[in-house]
Amino acid sequence: MAFYMDSKEKCNVHGDDFKNRLLTIFTIKVGETRSMAFYNGLSKKS
Description:
mainly alpha; 2 helices; 0% strand; PiggyBac transposable element-derived protein domain-containing protein
C-alpha cells in the first residue's frame, strides 16, 4: 500500500487513470462473482 501511495504521488495523472482502471476491473470481477453465486444458488434450489 505504501508503494502504491508513493507512486501515486509521483505521477498524479497516471495515478487517477490507474485507479479508475483498477476500480473498473474490480467492479466487473465483483459483478461476475455475484452473478455466479446467484446462479449457483438457483441451481442448488431446483
